[in-house]
Amino acid sequence: MLETKNLVKKFGSKTAVDDVSFTIEPGKTYLLLGPNGSGKTTWMKIAATLTKPTSGNVYWDGEPVGIESRKKISYMPTESYFYNWMRVADVGTYYRDFFEDFDEGKFREMLARLDLAPDARVRDLSSGMNAKLRLAAALSRYASVYLLDEPLNGIDLVARDQVLDTVIAAMTPDAAIVLSSHLVEEVESIASTAVFIRDGKILETRDTEELRDTDGQSLADRYRLLMR
Amino acid sequence: MQFDASLPIYQQVVTAIKKEIASGTIHPGDKLPSCRDLAVSYRINPNTAARVYQVLEAQEVAETRRGMGTYVRDDPQLKDTMLREMADGYTAQYVREMTGLGFDREELLKILAAWSDPEEKTKEDAGNRKEKTDA
Fold this sequence. Notes:
The complex is a heterodimer. By secondary structure, chain A is an alpha/beta fold. Chain A has 9 helices and 10 strands. Chain A has helices at 40-47, 67-70, 88-98, 104-113, 127-139, 157-169, 184-187, 208-215, 219-227, and strands spanning 2-11, 14-24, 29-33, 55-60, 63-64, 73-76, 145-149, 176-180, 193-198, 201-207.
């Protein structure tokens, strides 16, 4: 279980995350929805221990995130972090050296599923293919939490289906998936919980089917209503 | 499948599966995909897929056999039951929409009769085509 308690992150005078508290439970798929600059990426980076909080924290099994949580939390960042000299297959080797839970067989399967040639050079990949490679690497770990930051960014329609199918296949009762996206419509049907964020604050957390059932609203409807 | 995102997804998948039974695409006694496979094929959350099967079981359309998976209930009447349920649903929708437009019962029946009469229907289609060509 990943718990965020009274988390604050300031960059100079700007507050990127403003006293946020929420809990990520296994078996669910969370969707962080909010405009650019609302604090989604900052929260993920703190949970992935790439940025330190100003106050409050994110806790994994009751302990502040750190070396232990990194073994359990797999993070797909929005930007490419691979070296240009790497080939696609080298990313697997690199990951294997870093993470005990990385499964090279699973990684090879994912590359095939996502139409990525193992011998292609990373520097020759389009932005969409690079995103697919980052996704394959992140989902080839047997993690307890997967943090996927904008996995559909720069991805064309056909690849989008591949990405969604890959993410659905990774959903297990033991793991939580947290997706951030501003493409609300594309991810409507795969999320179980929507977290609406604006200006570093959580406006609302909703079960997606409950929202449709009781309010007759889609996530996109709700998003427009809340962000207006 | 294209969902109406303002209606619960599980209900839409339940209807889709019932429609497959009504149309004879799947049959009583057939094994249904696992929750995981259902989730992938409809591109939905696996928890939603599990709920689809719970609802189908509660409505006695499907049954789970321990350790074997979920099956369409092996009932020869099931196809007819599903057909009637679908027909009721579409008819109710038709009547609701038409009544909303101000048609009364008699007019509804007249329109339906004309529509289901093959000769009248052909004339109508030809008329529609002509209109389109004219435009």
